[in-house]
Design brief:
The protein is α/β, with parallel strands linked by helices. The protein folds into two domains: 181 residues, Rossmann fold (3-Layer(aba) Sandwich), CATH 3.40.50.150; 245 residues, no CATH class. It is built from 13 helices and 19 strands. The strands form four sheets. It has a seven-stranded mixed sheet. A six-stranded parallel sheet has the order 12-11-10-17-18-19, with helices on one face. Strands 13-16-14-15 form a four-stranded mixed sheet. About 17% of the residues have low confidence. GO terms for molecular function: methyltransferase activity.
Length: 526
């Protein structure tokens, strides 16, 4: 007896299996589009297969029913529903709930102190998933929105701190958490955008992980359009940020010359308006932690550098330098590119992952070709001087048989043409242009920049340093590495001093001491 054929059921089964797999593919494709490309959650549209009740409080988790939130601000200025009918699973996650409880406590404190209110229009900048925005809505501050480079709607729309999709004077309150401001690659633009979108008399509240006075004052310099209201230290939300400094500031109408912090000067941010400056107290504090000066003259100064450099307390090792709009290194008497720029600054100076603009000031034309194709380095082929004038630049004699002629170059002295006529010299003499270094510095950097300077100018430091004080340009420099030239003991000839310089070690020590007593963080360089 013949068995019934199974061909038709098998065919039907194959069709159903293929149809099922095709449906799975469509669902996966839809998920990838919504979540990955659109940057939204799985609750978008009618994508999810189930939803929570519209007014359930997923944060408290105790069955509390929350009031439906009103509207949020969109990039177009039109209102959009604040809470979707279908809530993202992330909102019910333990980490999200913990963050919301933390920010709810923060905002309730700010409400009790009068900085925030139910009617405030609030922006949370650089908030990735919007836990702070959620917390605001939960406590009744419904007109709140967050921005991040990738949207997480409805709480967070696409935008960045340094490029905000809002009109001028839009918000009453701006909040930045998680130490996001100091991580910004465009900090100056970040500050200016907040200045643009925050209303006059509005409040800016920032959570940062820095705790030293240098970083606090750098922050106040950066946000110069606000005045400091208060700061407080609080415990962080997790181990990633165990400590938080909360800074509350208020935007000042018609800001310009305002006192930012106790005992500080008027904030004109320009040393052009004064002939002298006073180094602020927070910079003076760093000197107490700096390495002590070497008071006894070294018997072998050529060996002192290797020993002393290990004792140097760099400013970035004592303070956070995040809140600066630019980072600048000025090498006065740079010599070759591989000299102090590469061998010391690039390899040894602690930069805290900041990118520095580099200015190399060198009077010896022998080294100029080295800088032609160096990115990030600007060569100033002149001599740093106290005014703009023509100078004579005397180069040390070098034995022609020496294998590396450049090694003896770049150690020349300068003097004005008027005073050098008729003088004899044992070295080569070039006529070069000198420029007013202090005035150049004032036109190149500001007090909101972080400026490091190394100076090795073969005795001219006794002219340049007083000029920096006279013009007030000294206040623009955060840290100086200074080589002071004196009649030191010679390596070649035991018991003999060099005749190239007339100053004594005692005069150099007086120079370093006066700099530190004036509040300048200076290190002895050899």
């Amino acid at each position: 007896m013949m068995q019934p054929s199974g061909g038709k059921p098998s065919f039907l089964r194959n069709v159903l299996v293929r149809l099922f797999l095709f449906c799975l593919f469509i669902i996966a494709l839809r998920f990838a589009y919504v979540v990955t490309l659109r940057g939204e959650s799985c609750d978008h549209g009618d994508f999810c297969f189930f939803s929570l009740p519209e007014n359930i409080d997923v944060v408290t988790g105790i069955g509390k029913w929350a009031k439906p939130s009103s509207a949020i601000i969109s990039t177009s200025g039109k209102s959009a529903p604040a809470m979707p009918k279908k809530l993202p699973e992330l909102w019910a996650a333990d980490g999200f709930q913990k963050a919301v409880r933390f920010y709810s406590s923060i905002f309730q404190d700010l409400i009790s102190e009068g900085f925030l209110g139910p009617s405030s229009k609030v922006l949370c900048v650089e908030t990735q998933i919007g836990a702070d925005v959620f917390a605001l809505k939960e406590i009744g501050v419904e007109d709140s929105i967050g921005i991040f480079k990738k949207a997480f709607k409805p709480l967070v729309i696409s935008g960045q701190g340094f490029k905000q999709p809002f009109k001028n004077s839009t918000f009453d309150f701006v909040f930045s958490c998680g130490g996001m401001i100091e991580k910004s690659a465009k900090l100056a633009d970040f500050a200016m955008e907040i200045s643009r979108t925050l209303k006059p008399e509005g409040f800016l509240v920032v959570h940062t992980g820095t705790r030293d006075n240098y970083s606090l004052n750098s922050f106040l310099d950066l946000f110069h359009f606000c005045k400091l209201v208060k700061t407080r230290d609080i415990d962080g939300i997790d181990s990633k940020m165990p400590f938080i400094r909360e800074i509350v500031m208020k935007k000042v109408s018609g800001y310009g010359n305002i006192v930012q912090i106790i005992g500080r000067r008027m904030e004109s941010h320009s040393v052009d308006s004064v002939s002298k400056c006073s180094v602020p107290g927070y910079k003076r504090e760093l000197i107490h932690n700096a390495e002590p000066l070497i008071e006894e003259e070294p018997k072998k100064p050529w060996m002192t550098l290797k020993k002393n450099i290990q004792n140097v307390k760099y400013l970035p090792s004592m303070a956070d330098i995040s809140f600066k709009q630019r980072y600048v290194y000025v090498d006065v008497g740079a010599r070759s590119y591989g000299s102090s720029i590469v061998s010391w600054f690039k390899k040894q100076y602690p930069k805290q992952n900041k990118t520095f603009e580099i200015y190399a000031i060198e009077a010896d034309k022998t080294f100029y070709d080295e800088y032609k194709y160096k990115k990030g380095v600007t060569l100033l082929p002149y001599a740093a001087w106290v005014r703009n004038e023509t100078l004579f630049f005397e180069i040390n004699n070098q034995d022609p048989s020496h294998k590396n002629l450049k090694k003896g170059r770049g150690m020349g002295r300068i003097q004005p043409v008027q005073s050098s006529g008729g003088s004899s010299s044992s070295g080569d003499v070039d006529e070069i242009k000198g420029f007013d270094f202090a005035e150049w510095l004032k036109n190149t950097v500001s007090e909101r920049d972080y400026v490091v300077m190394k100076m090795d100018v073969e005795g001219t430091e006794f002219d340049l340093i007083p000029r920096l004080f006279e013009t007030g340009a000294i206040c623009l420099i955060d840290e100086i590495f200074l080589e002071c030239h004196y009649n030191r003991w010679q390596k070649c000839c035991p018991g003999e001093r060099t005749t190239k310089y007339q100053r004594t070690y005692g005069q150099c020590l007086d120079l370093f001491t006066s700099l530190r007593e004036s509040g300048v963080l200076v290190h002895q360089w050899w």
